[in-house]
Amino acid sequence: MKLLSRSKQRPPTLPGDEDLADFEQDLKKTADEFLRVRDRFFAIRRAKAKYEQATDIDQTALPKAELAQLEERIESLKITLESQLLSWREASEPFWQIVRYVGLGLVIGWALGFWMAGKKASDDRESANRLAIPTLSATPSPDSSRRPD
């Protein structure tokens, strides 16, 4: 067997202070985002439990005032759940990515369209030149000085 010599192996490189600071900052951002997601999850869970509890009440035995209050509470819980599920912070990144890539697609499409239209026009001109009927010229050609005998 062939043994590897130590001279061919590179020593491991350690990350610099700037890399470690960037990593630490990214780690803090990730931890903060995780805490926000966790809090949001528990808020949705609480709102869902309240919603289920409010909808399980026998509504026929309640007075109209209390029934109206419960319906209002149910509607507010629905709004809370929907707003928790659809927040701008969560949708902003995918929204801007869609805008970016659709815009890029449109620009590429327009560029290809203009390029193809220009290519088609030049091809049309070339084919028209090839099919053009030769016209009689006013200048005599060198062969016209000779008369047939």
TrEMBL record:
Residues 1-20, 125-149 are annotated as: Disordered. The chain crosses the membrane at residues 98-117. It comes from the Bacteria. Keywords: Membrane, Transmembrane, Transmembrane helix. This is DUF2203 domain-containing protein. It comes from Leptolyngbya foveolarum.
